[in-house]
Amino acid sequence: MQFVSLYYAMVVAVSVHMQLVSTSLPFTKKCNCTTLKESLGVFQTNIQNSVDKLTRQVQMVTGAPQTAMATGSPLTTHVLDTSSGTPAANLTISLFRRDELGQWTNLSNGNTNSDGRLPGLLTQDTFTIGLYKLTFDTGSYFLEKSVHGFYPYVDVVFEITDPHQHYHVPLLLSPYGYSTYRGS
Amino acid sequence: MATGSPLTTHVLDTASGTPAVNLKISLFRKDKLGQWTDLFNGKTNSDGRLPGLLTQDTFTMGLYKVTFDTGTYFLEKGVNGFYPYVDVVFEIKDPHQHYHVPLLLSPYGYSTYRGS
Fold first, then answer.
1. How far is B3 from chain A (nearest CA, A)?
2. Interface check A27 vs B, CB under 8 A
3. Size of interface A-B (CB pairs under 8 A)
4. Contact by Cβ (8 Å): A118, A131
5. Which of B35, B14, B29 has its CA nearest to residue B102?
């Protein structure tokens, strides 16, 4: 009896997996499978396809760092929620540059992805010497998690003196404390 | 404690391992129109502290901002710093509590937390 339950549990698990895999990953086949063996076969193929694709992506990043850097934003950020030990996903970030009149000009806005990052903040040609400000909407982030935070938002103001360098401005965040530094 | 400020700060220069002395600090409160009202300005003492930021009767619920003039501080030390200033914006919900908002500072990084 237990073995039969286990078998059906596995079939359900694989079927659910096949549905998830077919909608969320590229290069996957949808499974019109009737047997567990068929499901497992397609499952294996899909996993291999995903691994191949990820391997190619890793090779792109590690094998040609200059290419990746040349096309990526010269300014990057990364928000980590140190109270939960996870990236801070779906946190709104705004980037500003100070103009000649001392006003903050909004350059870009977005929400962090599931890894707590926000790619595409800037392009190399828009990256000039000057004062920049990143505003992290920490108030909304913690409110959505039903956690009380001390800081309604976090502003980090920094100076770019050499736009040919890469600047990484991460935020380690928790409800009652945060830190930031110039990373790489 | 009854006569001290209900809001205190402390700036430590973690690059040199000493208190950040003579660092200018400004305190603001956001008014009903959304503007920052200047409440107090001063420079840290030899222990990196700035007593007398507020009195209990002026300490109301609301949004506050402490601006640390880190740019001038490092410039005076002949050190190049990444941050021209540091703003810490926080919310006071219970003015009967004591709030300690320190800054651990170095030229290319800083951290702050709600202390006691």
1. 25
2. no
3. 53
4. no
5. B14
pTM of this structure: 0.76
Please list, in sequence order, all residues whose beta carbon lies within 8 angstroms of the beta carbon of residue B4, skipping any fewer than 6 positions away.
B51
Asked if B75 is an interface residue toward chain A (Cβ–Cβ < 8 A), one would say no
Which among A153, A177, A180 has CB closest to B114?
A: A177
| Residue A128 vs residues A4, A100, A119, A121: alpha-carbon distances, Å | 66, 13, 18, 13
Q: Is the dihedral of CA A174, B62, A95, B78 positive or negative?
A: negative
Closest-CA residue in chain A for B106?
A181
Q: A34 pLDDT band (50/70/90 cuts)?
A: confident
- What is the C-alpha to C-alpha distance for residues B1 and B6, in angstroms, rounded to an integer? 8
- Top-confidence residue, A5 or B64: B64
CA A56 from centroid of its chain's CA atoms: 19
Q: Is B110 on the interface with A (CB under 8 A)?
A: yes
Per-residue tokens: A117 = 């990052």
Structure tokens of A55?
A: 């391997």
Distance CA B51, CA B27 (A): 12
Can you tell me the mean pLDDT for B5-24? Answer: 97
Asked whether the beta carbons of residue B85 and residue A157 sit closer than 8 angstroms, the reply is yes
DSSP character string of A39-101: HHHHHHHHHHHHHHHHHHHHHHHHH-HHHHHHHS-SEE-BEEETTTTEE-TT-EEEEEEE-TT
Predicted ipTM of the assembly: 0.94
Task: Using alpha carbons, select from A18, A23, A71 the residue that is nearest to residue A40.
Answer: A18
Which single residue is written with the structure tokens 């094998």? A63
How high does pLDDT run on average in chain A? 82
- Which pLDDT does position B2 carry in this prediction? 44
Interface check for A155 against chain B (CB to CB < 8 A): the answer is: yes
**Cα separation of A107 and A121, whole Å?**
8
Q: Is A144 helix (H, G, I), strand (E, B) or coil?
A: helix
